[in-house]
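Researcher: I'm preparing a figure for a lab meeting and need a structural model of a single chain. I don't have an experimental structure, so a prediction will have to do for now. The sequence is pasted below. Please return the structure as tokens so I can convert it later.
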Amino acid sequence: MTVEAVVDGQVVRWRDKKRYLWIMGALIPMIPLIMWGLVAATGWHVWWFFGPFFVFVLIPLFDLLAGLDPNNPPDELIEALEEDRYYRWVTYAFIPLQVAGFLWGAFLLGNGTIFGWDPFDGAVLPGIVENLTWYDKLGLATGMGMVAGIGINTAHELGHKKEELERWFARIALAQTAYGHFYIEHNRGHHVRVATPEDPASGRMGETVWEFMPRTVLGSLSSAWELERKRFARLKKSPFSLKNDLINAWMFTVLLWGFSLAAFGLGIFPYLVVQAILGIWLLESVNYLEHYGMKRQKLESGRYERVNPSHSWNSNNIGTNVLLYHLQRHSDHHANPTRRYQALRDFKEAPVLPTGYAGMIVLSWVPQIWRRVMDERVLAHYEGDVTKANLHPRTRDKYLARYGQRAASSDSVAA
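Model: Understood. Here is the structure written out token by token.
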């Protein structure tokens, strides 16, 4: 389908080549069903671990084979493109599929019974034995966790929108991970403090992903509560209310998990915790790399400069982009938070990741390799001036000593 508009008497046309690829995002919440189907078809229980294989092997391969798409929609057509409701329904479809996939996974974890009733009258459902082993269930939980993490990304896309329905959809998507406070902290915290030392969701140069995790999880939760507490203080009301957006978002988790535990048994609880932790870990791994080492400089007024495309790492890898709704065009997202994913643009001045998010997450698991790949890119982005980077306090002196000498040498050569 071609989008067109008349501008100054001229017809401007543009075709989204990824238009029908976006629906591939609906594959993600079906991972629990896909795992069961693969086990049922082959009898190989290794397929219970298909979720991580899909995210960390198949998606990077998809990125490699599909290549890059640096094309931007013309500015004149962005409004028309955003009005195309097809793109909204693509994200809306994720929500019921996510809930259904979660309940199916919980059903399997509960050994195929619901409220103690066997819906198959004693017949063994293919792919389900009477009692799955603990490691089968652990594999299933990892797949559910991959869905949960990518579900937070869907919540991210919907939570930025002005329509109230989409904001409620975002809360539902966050229920699986019990990470409802993300709805508050990301919009009103991260977008204000992004690429500064004060932001718990911006990775610092020299900081490992393992150091980043507790800082961002605890910092984001604390920040979200403080934001809502201050909002209610201005209203002269108690924050302990269902009108508190943290509490009403968490209520969806109470409902979803409460029903699942009642229906499929308390024994599934440890696996629900595992999948939630993995979902949070997947989200925060993305947060770590999106602004790694990037720093907004302070102005004479003491305030930070406005966010611009140079403060976010970008990637045009098609595979990850169609599954994450253009999340990798992160610079435009921070410049225009309410802009819909299909209209996000690439900027030449934005720093570029060597591969898509899935591959970068794998890279982050080995800090030595991560630093070798990414620290040089951060330094190149700031033209050798390491003092402009967002440095981790633990490594600050070491980085200044190592790279400061290089910057001084470069200045000497230039002179």
